[in-house]
Amino acid sequence: MRELLARLGLSDLNAGAWAGAPVGGPDDGTLVSLNPTDNSVLGQVQLATRAQYDAVASEAARAFREWRMVPAPKRGEIVRQMGDALRANKDDLGALVSLEVGKIRSEGLGEVQESIDIADFSVGLSRQLYGLSLHSERPQHRMMEQWHPLGPVGVITAFNFPNAVWAWNAMLAAVCGDTVIWKPSLKAPLTAIATHRVCEAVLAKHGWSGVFGLVIGKDAEVGEAMLRDERLPLISATGSTRMGRRVGAVVSERFGRTLLELGGNNAIIVEPDADLSLAVRGITFGAVGTAGQRCTTTRRLFVHERISSELLPRLVAAWKQCRIGDPLAEGTLVGPLIDADAVRSFEQAVATAISQGGEVLAGGKRVDRPGNYVEPTLIRAHAGMAICKEETFAPILYVVEYRSLEEAIHLQNDVPQGLSSSIFTDSFRSAETFLSAAGSDCGIANVNIGTSGAEIGGAFGGEKETGGGRESGSDAWKAYMRRQTNTMNWGRDLPLAQGITFDV
Ligand code: NAD
C-alpha cells in the first residue's frame, strides 16, 4: 500500500500543495481517509480553508480568461494527453479506488476506464461543438447559434465514483473551454488528489496550471462558499437528493445553473416470457455489484406472479454465491460499505422493512469481521411498504410480485426518484410499452440488461428527485457552454423583424 501511495505522489499529503492553493495557510483541521475493509488509516489530508478556496477560485477565473480563447481542438489535444496519462496510471488509480472506497478490483479499474473513455469522447467532441445556421425572415440577413465557453465550473462529487464522476464533468468542461474547481467527497480525498495530480501534470507541461483546481474542504465552509460564488456560473453536483435540494436552492437564488445527479431507486421488471438466466445475472450484478453503492443499483424487483416461484430460488442461490471479502482479493464480488454509518443505515433499513411486513429471503445481517461488510440482502416485499420508496445505499433488493405489465410500470414509477430502470422480456410489445411515453419515467430505461453499468456515449441522468441533469455523452456538453444567437445583416437596408417600420 505504501508503495502504491508513493507512486501516486501521495506521500506528502500534509504539504497542502494538492489544493493548488498557497501552501502553509492556516491549518483548520485534518481529514483522515479510512480503508473500509478494516477502518485503518490510509492517509491524512489537510483541509482547505475558505481563504484557500478563494485562491483556487481566483486562479480558475484567471485561467478561464485565457483557456476560453484556445481553439477547441487544441484543448482537445491536451485532454487527449490527459486520457493517456490516466491510461498509464490506470492500475494504480484503480487500486486506490478499491482501497479507499472498497470497490472490487475490476470495478476500480472499470471506473478509471470510464474516465479514459470520456477523455477519448471529449477529444472527438472538441471538433464538433456545433451550432445551428438558420434562415432569417429578413433579406440579406443570416442567423446562427454558436456555443461559447461558460466559465469556471464547480464540480461536487459523491464518494462512490471518486474518479469517474469528476472526469465526466472535467473532460467535457475542458474541451468546452471552461476551467474546473473540484470539491470531492471527504470520504475519498486520496483518489481525488491522485487523479488531480495525474491530469495536472499534463496541464502544467503545457503551461495550463489553473485549468483544473482541487479543494478538499468542509461542506459548511468550502462547499457553501462554492455554491454562493458568483464566479461559478455552473455547479455540477453528484450526490444525495438531500444535498441536491440544498445546492439547487442556493445556486438558483443567484441565478446560477446547476447540473444535478442525485439519488436513484432503480427497478427491474421481469415479465413471464423473460430469459431467466439473463435476468438472474442482470439482477444480481445490479443489486449486489459495488455492494449496492451505485446510484444505478437495482433496489426494487417486480416479478410477474407466474414466474416468481422459479425466479426467487435462483436469486437466493445467486445471492449466496457472491463471495464477500477484501475487494483487492481474487474472486471477491462484494466489498465493504464505505463506513460504519452506512452499515447502520443498512441495519436500520432491514429492520424497518421487516416491521413493515417484509420477509428476508437471503442475507440481512452485517458480516462478523472487521470493516464495514454486510450481506447482500433479498427481501420479499409488498407494494405498500414505505421503505421501498427510499434509497438505502447498500445491497438490499426488495422483491414485489405483480399481475400485469401496466401494474408493474405503475409501481416502478411510483417513487420520488427517476434514474434507471429495466425490463427483462422476449416480447417486442412489452419492451416497446416499457420504452413508450406511458412506460418508464426514468432517465435511463433498458431492455434485457440491468439498471447499472451505463456507457459514456449516452447522456446519463434521471428525472424527478434524481435532479434532471444529464452528463457524459450525447449532447450533455451543452450544459457546459452558453448559447448565443447571432443575426448578421450583410445588406444596405435595416428591415425590422415582424414587418415593423420605424423610419427616422
Ligand atoms: P452526499 O450527498 O453525502 O455527498 C455528495 C457530495 O456533496 C460530497 O462531496 C459532499 O461533501 C457534498 N455536499 C454535501 N452538502 C453540501 C453542501 N451544502 N455544499 C456543497 N457540497 C455539499 O452523497 P454521497 O454519500 O457521497 O453519495 C451517495 C449519493 O450520491 C447517493 O444518493 C447516490 O445515489 C448519489 N449518486 C448519484 C449519482 C448520479 O449520477 N445520479 C452518481 C453517484 C452517486
Description:
It is a single chain. The chain is an alpha/beta fold and 504 residues long. It folds into two domains: 2-262 and 467-484, Aldehyde Dehydrogenase, Chain A, domain 1 (3-Layer(aba) Sandwich), CATH 3.40.605.10; 266-447, Aldehyde Dehydrogenase, Chain A, domain 2, CATH 3.40.309.10. It is built from 14 helices and 21 strands. A seven-stranded mixed beta sheet has the order 12-13-14-11-10-16-17, sandwiched between helices. Strands 7-6-5-8-9 form a five-stranded parallel beta sheet, with helices on both faces. Strands 3-4-21 form a three-stranded antiparallel beta sheet, with no helix packed on it. Helix 3 (72-88) packs across helix 7 and helix 4 packs antiparallel against helix 7. The longest helix is centred in the N-terminal third of the chain and has 21 residues, at 105-125. The protein is globular, with a radius of gyration of 24 Å.
List keywords for this structure.
Aldehyde Dehydrogenase, Chain A, domain 1, five-stranded parallel beta sheet, single chain, 21 strands, 2 domains, Aldehyde Dehydrogenase, Chain A, domain 2, binds nicotinamide-adenine-dinucleotide, 37% helix, 504 residues, alpha/beta
Brief account:
With 504 residues, the protein is α/β, with parallel strands linked by helices. Helices cover 37% and strands 20% of the residues.
